[in-house]
Design a protein that fits this description.
Layout: H1 11-26, H2 35-38, H3 41-59, H4 62-70, H5 79-96
Helix pairs in contact: 1-3, 3-4
């Protein structure tokens, strides 16, 4: 589910989403929220978005993408990966041709 669909969810659905997503990402359910926070739509959406943002930052590096994959997340290869591979090939060519 993309972040822009959060507005369509009820508070109960956001609570379930956050609980499951947090467990999938961190390995444990969130237990740090106060009862007031747990009922606050803005808090729930911000917490969900924070996990999405952390995942997005991890996707920016090969090591981060590898870590996400090792945890069972499906991470599509991006144009960034293609550029990295092209740079590696250019570097290998430069070494081979003595440049």
């Amino acid at each position: 589910m993309s972040q822009n669909h959060l507005a369509d969810l009820t508070v109960d659905e956001l609570q379930s989403y956050l609980s499951d997503f947090h467990k999938d990402f961190f390995g444990f359910r969130p237990r740090y929220a106060t009862p007031e926070q747990w009922r606050d739509r803005e808090y729930l959406e911000a917490s969900i978005n924070a996990i999405h943002n952390q995942m997005d930052r991890m996707k920016e590096t090969p090591a981060g993408r590898a870590e996400l994959r090792s945890q069972g997340w499906v991470v599509e290869e991006s144009d960034f990966d293609v550029l990295e591979q092209a740079e590696e090939l250019a570097d290998a060519d430069a070494v081979y041709y003595g440049a």
